[in-house]
Amino acid sequence: MPDPRTDPPAGGSEAEVLLGFLEFHRTIFRMKTAGLTAAQRDQRLAPSGITLGGMAKHLAYVEDWWTTQVFAGRDAPEPWASADWDADPDWDWHSAADDGPAAVEALLDAAVARSRQVVADALAGPDGLDAPAARPGRLEGLRLRWIVVHLVEEYCRHNGHADLVRESIDGQVGE
Fold first, then answer.
1. Contact 34/164 with Cβ under 8 angstroms?
2. Residue 3 falls within a domain, yes or no?
3. pLDDT reading at 71 higher than 60
4. Does residue 173 carry a pLDDT above 90?
5. Does the pLDDT value for residue 2 go beyond 80?
């Protein structure tokens, strides 16, 4: 299979470079979870309880939380809106095993599509990466730039986790 990654741009605007890195790491995560069965996606690397399926669902939640809810100020889409977060604060991680790989991948695809649209709309506006979040919460002065960098960081961290879990499943290693 050809490598689906596109290197982030070495030049360009700040937004182009940041979004290039975000897309690069989104693709890496997809590569690390590709071709696995439901049982493999739910396999854990002891003593950790994280799974590749849980990671994928968590990343879908992270995409929706930061761009759709915090930045754009919209209500949580499903399944987040009806999840019982009080009963299980890590519901995104734990419920993935009940969904199956195709459903989790579709959830991640939809969340990424919403994120891309929110970011594109903001970048088309007058403030660009300096656009303020509609609901900054405890992060007074939160801007789109911070959110995009945080998404890059989130994918980078979980790509490292995914490397370890994937290698324990079938020996496949990343770069």
1. no
2. no
3. yes
4. no
5. no
Dist. CA 7–CA 24, nearest whole Å: 6
Whether pTM exceeds 0.85: yes
**What domain range includes position 106?**
14-170
150 CB-near residues (< 8 Å, 6+ apart)? 66
Q: DSSP states of 62-117 as a string? A: HHIIIIIIIIT-PPPPTTTTT--TTT-TTHHHHGGGGT-HHHHHHHHHHHHHHHHH
Is omega for the bond preceding 47 within 30 degrees of 0, making it cis?
Answer: yes
pLDDT of amino acid 172 = 85
Residue 79 lies in a domain: yes
**First vs last C-alpha separation in the chain:** 16
- Asked if 152 and 129 touch (Cβ cutoff 8 Å), the reply is no
Q: Could you identify the residue written with the tokens 């960098």? A: 149
Instruction: Count up the domains in the chain and report the number.
Output: 1
Query: In whole numbers, what is the pLDDT of the chain averaged over residues?
Result: 94
Q: Is 32 a domain residue?
A: yes
